[in-house]
Amino acid sequence: MAGSADADFKTRLQNWIPKLVLSPSLAMMMVFVYGFILFSVYLSFTDSRILPSFGWVGWENYDKLWRLSHWETSLINMGIFAGLYIVICTCIGLGLAIFLDQKIRGEGLLRPIYLYPMALSFIVTGTAWKWFLDPGIGLENVMHTWGWTSFEFDWIKNRDYAIYTVVLAAVWQTSGFVMAMFLAGLRGIDNEILRAAQMDGASNWNLYRRIIIPQLRPAFLSAFVILSHLAIKTFDLVIALTGGGPGRATELPATFMYSYTFTRNQMGIGAASATIMLMTIAAIMIPYLYAELREKR
Question: What digits encode the pLDDT tens for the residues 120-138?
Answer without folding.
Answer: 899 999 999 999 999 988 8
